[in-house]
Amino acid sequence: MTTQGTYDGQLLRGDEWRGRDFTGQSVAVIAHGHEAAAIVPEVARTARAVKVFQEEPDWLLPATLPLPALLRRPVARLHLRLAVRDPWTRRRLTPDHRFNTRRPRTDGHYYAVLQQPHCTLISWPVYALVPGGVRSAEGIEHHVDCIILGTTAAHREDLQ
């Protein structure tokens, strides 16, 4: 991702989004799946619109009792299948990596929030931050009032 031009809206990095009110704002969240799963449900409570540029999906477990390692993968797959009915959206939320490369986190309503009308999951990678918002790799400029960069995205050299 490059910074072609200077983004002229509010740019929050890491945990700076916590405790903020996004009422009436359109917000872009650029983060890996495990970070997006934590950020999006909170931001979507008050934001007018949320565009999620999920850099890489991660497995999410339902909020249940602790599971033995052997059951985590089938439970995470079943949870995704039951929580996300649309096959295309479910495919975009399915990780390509092996199950145990990251510890799965609990789904804090991420899947449910992504299916709300004011939330949009965007599969194209972010190409640049532009004055009005975010340009994705397919060339579309997504105009937003605020951009939230997850911890991983906030530490990338091209955003400094």
Automatic annotation (TrEMBL):
The keyword Methyltransferase does not apply. Keywords: FAD, Flavoprotein, Monooxygenase, NADP, Oxidoreductase. InterPro entries: FAD-binding_Monooxygenases, FAD/NAD-bd_sf. Its cofactor is FAD. It comes from the Bacteria. One of its GO terms (molecular function) is oxidoreductase activity, acting on paired donors, with incorporation or reduction of molecular oxygen, NAD(P)H as one donor, and incorporation of one atom of oxygen. The keyword Flavoprotein applies. Belongs to the FAD-binding monooxygenase family. This is FAD-dependent oxidoreductase.
